Amino acid sequence: MKTTDVSRAALGRIPVYLRFLESLPQDTETVSATVIAKELGFGEVQVRKDLGAICGSGKPRIGYTVSDLKKCLGGLIDSRNGKAVIVGAGKLGRALLDYGGFSDYGLDILAAFDTEVPPNGESEKPILPLDGLADFCKKNNVSIGVIAVPAEAAQEVCDKLCQSGIKAVMSFAPCRLTAPEGVAVQYENMALSLAHLKAQIKQ
Amino acid sequence: MKTTDVSRAALGRIPVYLRFLESLPQDTETVSATVIAKELGFGEVQVRKDLGAICGSGKPRIGYTVSDLKKCLGGLIDSRNGKAVIVGAGKLGRALLDYGGFSDYGLDILAAFDTEVPPNGESEKPILPLDGLADFCKKNNVSIGVIAVPAEAAQEVCDKLCQSGIKAVMSFAPCRLTAPEGVAVQYENMALSLAHLKAQIKQ
Q1: Is A84–B146 a contact, with Cβ atoms under 8 angstroms apart?
Q2: Are A99 and B190 inside 8 Å of each other by CB?
Q3: Residue-level pLDDT at B15
Q4: Please, what is the angle between helix A33-40 and helix A8-23, to 10°?
Q5: A170: which chain B residues are within 8 Å (Cβ-Cβ)?
Q6: Rounded CA gap, A142 and A82, in Å?
């Protein structure tokens, strides 16, 4: 099972399933899709479909072995390739640096980089000078770069990240980027998301 | 033509088309899909499909009347229902407040609200006390609320927004929300986006 085969919606539910499984009493050996659906307020069909696609079917009348299910779901969001850095330590970059939800998906944001390093604020994670980006990424085996700089600086940052051995780039800058083959690029466009929401407002 | 009928990808290209049309010399009367595609580096098939779906076909050998095309594309991202407020003036809320890309989509972020109003920083837009949320939204005909508070406060904020006459909610908090019927809710999950990107890294 590869993560790429799992729908984005199902991937979003994995941390929810895992948190539920972790919350079960230690001596719980098995759990059924019916119980999971009821406890989480999900549809039973959906739970069966999610777990079936990721971990195969449970045993009739018994359901899934809890430890197997944890291993299977957890394996899907393991921490391989999960090390990331942010370039751009403005408000957005620092918001991302302190955002707590990444570890649920096996992601580990190690540091942010910027040309001007702001005075160390409340953040527990370091903000480092951009000069050291390549060394840091190579030493720490970083595979994801998040671009949180203005559009005019984004391509230069993208080039720097690719030269640092990054395998995937997520950009919040509102412009297209060119990256070498083999580097995945994803664009986050918050304005577009909001525009889509606006379109759903009933007149 | 309703915005809801346009794909997210096409919606994302509308500001690009509009910016190109605005950049044409004032006396340009018509423009063809071929020229637009070439200038913007898009595929011609894509441009024809986008414009055809939104504004109908151009005239053979002539293309589109520039003023008609501007009116048609611009109408789709008009500013109806585009007024928004942010609740939560932490790093993320303030990053959103200052983000310049929203106006491209007919969105207007008017202000951020928080229980504790931080000292007015560099932001040009006001950060206001949460007490005044309902009055502000009603007076200014605000229809979109963006939730940028921690998960534990998100439902309360969502309730407050709905009581203030908001028609659509976008939440960055990592939890499910309950909203009255008729209020559209959309979740932004940056960790999930990054997890998806991670899944694309070739092993």
Answers
A1: no
A2: yes
A3: 79
A4: 90
A5: 193-194, 197
A6: 8
* Same fold yes or no, B3-76 and B83-194: no
Residue B1 has pLDDT above 70, yes or no: no
pLDDT value at B145 more than 80 = yes
Domain boundaries B83-194, corresponding CATH code: 3.40.50.720
**Which residue from B6, B167, B201 is facing A167, i.e. has the nearest CB?**
B201
Residues of B within 8 A of A196 (CB-CB) are: 8, 11, 186
Give dist(CA A98, CA A127) in Å, integer. 11
Supply the CATH classification number for the domain A3-76.
1.10.10.10
Could A186 and B200 be called an inter-chain contact, meaning their C-beta atoms sit closer than 8 Å?
yes
Q: Measured between alpha carbons, how far is A52 from B14 in angstroms, rounded to an integer?
A: 40
Pairing of strands A30-31, A64-65: antiparallel
Band the pLDDT of B79: cuts 50, 70, 90: low
CB contact under 8 A, A104 and B191: yes
Domain range annotation of chain B: 3-76, 83-194
